[in-house]
Design brief:
Largest interface: A-B, 28 and 18 residues
Oligomer: heterodimer
Radius of gyration of chain B: 21 Å
Number of strands of chain A: 12
CATH topology of chain B: MetI-like fold
Number of domains of chain B: 1
Strand content of chain A: 15-25%
Low-confidence stretches of chain A: none
Number of strands of chain B: 0
Low-confidence stretches of chain B: none
Helix content of chain B: over 70%
Strand content of chain B: under 5%
Mean pLDDT of chain B: 85
Shape of chain B: elongated
Distance between the termini of chain B: 19 Å
Structural class of chain B: mainly alpha
CATH architecture of chain B: Orthogonal Bundle
Mean pLDDT of chain A: 86
Helix content of chain A: 25-40%
Radius of gyration of chain A: 20 Å
Distance between the termini of chain A: 35 Å
Strand order of the largest sheet of chain A: 6-7-8-3-9-10-12-11
């Protein structure tokens, strides 16, 4: 069953120096209980995509067009109050920096209780009990309810933000680089934690620049470049046989234990999203670029459950 | 807050030399001064030896054992007038500041949080109030409303609304970009809740500091108003009023008529300014220190 379907979503930032097309025609879907990872470089629009799903794109950004269907209802058509009820209870989000994503002035327990009573009519004592259970479910002891954020380590704080995000049993958890600020061991534990929630039926959308991290746990993976998804499909297939030259290059620039000693790098820089190059946005950096790549944008092609947007796989060119 | 700049200018080099300790010393000194005046105001009937509104002896007596601060032209005991005067000035200034706060803080919060056209409109109104020299504006409002305690408090409160508005708005602008505010929104918190339950508590240090600094400034404004006869009606004891009444006799050498009221105004204003500066140091507000 499809939980979330994003169709042709466009999010633009209207800055003084021009329109930044941060998300430019993105389509993807997440099934119930599925883990989708969105992978891309900094500035490719992956975080904007995450914010857009919650309709929290900061100004001057605006969702220009497209549809975001959650169980069939278009979130972009909901009123403000209806959308507010979706946030936290149906879709919730964990942010990159656990150091600043908790209110410094309030105890952990109070912050979890706040999130619960926001959506459910529970009395405070019951909500407190739930808060303690939630802390236990993320591997923290229940006496943490009386601690302040500054008394916790980064990993502990991220566990708390996950507990808050999971407090209302959302159908979809969006995690925007949840482990970037943490060390590798803690990163692994946090990922275990998120995987545990997935096993209980929550769908996960992980936004990351870490391909290795995404490859390890995801069911599906979407490779994003300059505001567009260039390749999308089941994780094993994309990792084992990437089709898009960008995915290939990204994989070859990820260190492995058994592999070539020297890492490949992708020459050049990601394009300025105010003036993206014509045609395929990757063509100036692509070593397989054809003539048509700089002239016409490649249409996404669907081949047995995978999607790729590249002229190399288009029948017309051969 | 222009006059407080002077206090700052004097103390800034000291802070440079002695570090944070000056801040702490300022805080304690300020608190002692304010505490002393508050005790004076609360226990005025016990402390003051005479009734401040009726003659207690011969006029124009210099400070003696019977009349610690001397007597004025009506033979009223200056010490008793000063003790009772602290009640008026504290009452006027504190209530005025509370009014400014209760208007300026919510407006600043809403303006900074909502932004856009509303913010521009609010800011424009506040900036135009702020553009007037505070004393001139207070005089204009007080003169319009007529001299009595309530009107003085009102006049002063209007003058200091922009001070709160600007500080709170600025802080709100930076706080609303904080991730925990974003996180609250992602959890479905309402705007009202975000403003008053997430942002406002984080503004507390700023509010406390601005409170004591604006009280310090308001004391000078109140004294100025009553010096010009725009505040209390005689024979109510009031420092600013006593200053004005005593001033013509300065040429006769009756220095005590202006010295003590003036000293008290200065001390109290300084007390609050020290508290504000000391706390600002503590909370490391202002960045440059």
């Amino acid at each position: 069953m499809t939980l979330l379907r994003v169709e042709n979503l466009k999010v633009h930032y209207y800055t003084l120096s021009g329109i930044v097309r941060a998300v430019d025609g993105v389509s993807l879907s997440i099934e119930k209980g599925e883990w989708l990872s969105v992978v891309g470089e900094s500035g490719c629009g992956k975080s904007t995509l995450a914010y857009a799903i919650l309709r929290l794109v900061p100004p001057p950004g605006r969702i220009v067009s497209g549809r975001i269907l959650l169980d069939g209802t278009d979130l972009l058509r909901l009123g403000g109050e209806e959308m507010r009820r979706v946030r936290g209870s149906r879709i919730s989000m964990v942010f990159q920096d656990p150091m600043t994503s908790l209110d410094p002035l309030r105890k952990i327990g109070d912050q979890i209780v706040e999130a619960i009573v926001e959506h459910e009519e529970l009395d405070v004592r019951e909500a407190r009990k739930r808060a303690e259970e939630l802390l236990a479910s993320v591997g923290l002891t229940s006496d943490m309810v009386n601690r302040y954020p500054h008394q916790l380590s980064g990993g502990q704080r991220q566990r708390v933000t996950i507990a808050i995000a999971m407090s209302l049993n959302p159908s979809l958890l969006i995690a925007d680089e949840p482990t970037t600020a943490l060390d590798v061991i803690v990163q692994d534990r946090i990922m275990d934690l998120i995987e545990g929630f997935k096993a209980e039926g929550t769908s996960i959308m992980l936004v990351t620049h870490d391909l290795a991290l995404a490859a390890e746990r995801s069911d599906k993976i979407a490779i994003m470049y300059a505001g567009k998804i260039v390749e999308y499909g089941p994780v094993d297939e994309v990792i084992d046989s990437p089709m898009h030259p960008y995915s290939k290059a990204l994989l070859e620039s990820t260190p492995r234990l058994r592999g070539p000693k020297r890492l490949r790098y992708i020459p050049g820089y990601p394009p300025d999203l105010r003036r993206p190059p014509p045609g395929c946005r990757f063509h100036p950096r692509c070593e397989k670029a054809l003539k048509i790549c700089s002239q016409k944008e490649p249409e996404p092609r669907y081949l047995n459950g995978r999607m790729v947007a590249c002229w190399l796989y288009s029948g017309e060119v051969g | 807050m222009v006059r407080l700049e002077i206090v700052k200018k004097i103390y800034e080099p000291l802070i440079g030399i002695f570090g944070v300790r000056v801040g702490r010393g300022m805080l304690i000194t300020g608190m002692l001064i304010v505490l002393a005046v508050v005790i004076m105001a609360v226990f005025a009937p016990l402390i003051a030896p005479y009734n401040p509104t009726i003659s207690a002896g011969k006029p124009f007596q210099p400070p003696t054992k019977e009349h610690l601060f001397g007597t004025n032209r009506l033979g009223q005991d200056m010490f008793s007038r000063i003790v009772y005067g602290s009640r008026i000035i504290l009452l006027v200034v504190i209530s005025a500041t509370l009014i400014s706060m209760s208007v300026g803080i919510p407006l600043g919060l809403i303006s900074g949080y909502v932004g856009g056209k509303l913010d521009r409109a609010f800011s424009m109104v506040m900036d135009s109030i702020y553009a007037f020299p505070s004393l001139v504006l207070a005089i204009a409002i007080a003169a319009m409303l007529g001299p009595n305690i309530t009107n003085t408090a009102l006049a002063i409160s209007i003058v200091y609304i922009p001070t709160y508005f600007r500080m709170i708005r600025g802080q709100t602008l930076s706080l609303k970009e904080q991730l925990f505010v974003e996180a609250a929104r992602a959890l479905g918190a309402r705007d009202r809740e975000i403003m008053f339950r997430y942002i406002l508590p984080n503004l507390a240090p700023t509010i406390v500091v601005v409170f004591s600094l604006s009280v310090a400034d308001a004391i000078l404004t109140e004294a100025g108003l009553s010096f010009l006869g725009l505040s209390v009606v005689p024979p109510t004891p009031d420092w600013g009023y006593d200053l004005r009444v005593g001033q013509p006799f300065l040429l006769n050498g009756y220095w005590w008529l202006v010295f003590f009221p003036g000293l008290m105004v200065m001390l109290l204003a300084m007390g609050f300014a020290f508290i504000g500066e000391g706390l600002g140091e503590r909370f490391a507000l202002g960045g440059e220190r």
